[in-house]
Design brief:
Layout: E1 3-7, E2 10-13, E3 18-25, E4 32-39, E5 46-51, E6 58-60, E7 68-73, E8 78-83, E9 92-100, E10 113-114, E11 118-123
Parallel strand pairs: 2-11
Antiparallel strand pairs: 1-3, 3-8, 4-5, 4-9, 5-6, 7-8, 9-10, 9-11
Length: 124
Amino acid sequence: QVQLVESGGGLAQAGGSLRLSCAASGLSFRSYAMAWFRQAPGKERELVAAINWSGGSTYYADSVKGRFTISRDNAKNTVYLAMNSLKPEDTAVYHCAGDWTYGLPLTNNEYEHWGQGTQVTVSS
């Protein structure tokens, strides 16, 4: 059974930092593209960042480019999202997602496995 378990969310002040982790089990992690999505209240889920199986290709939403960094450790079956210079508009539930592909999917309906999410709240 595939499981994606996020951790690292919490409360941060504007300008602060948080690091999210997503531990994967039950899958061949090296064969999966991974991504972080977020969903704020009353808004649609949006792609924040994605990384291909090797880490050699990444994508960032314009709203987080230069502030967030996605990375992965295939030996630990874990994907990370380092978030710096946080803004109140980054407040959302952050979900990690995985897709069995060597490509880099950029839409949520391409991802077959999802975590439960972790809350990130940024105060001004």
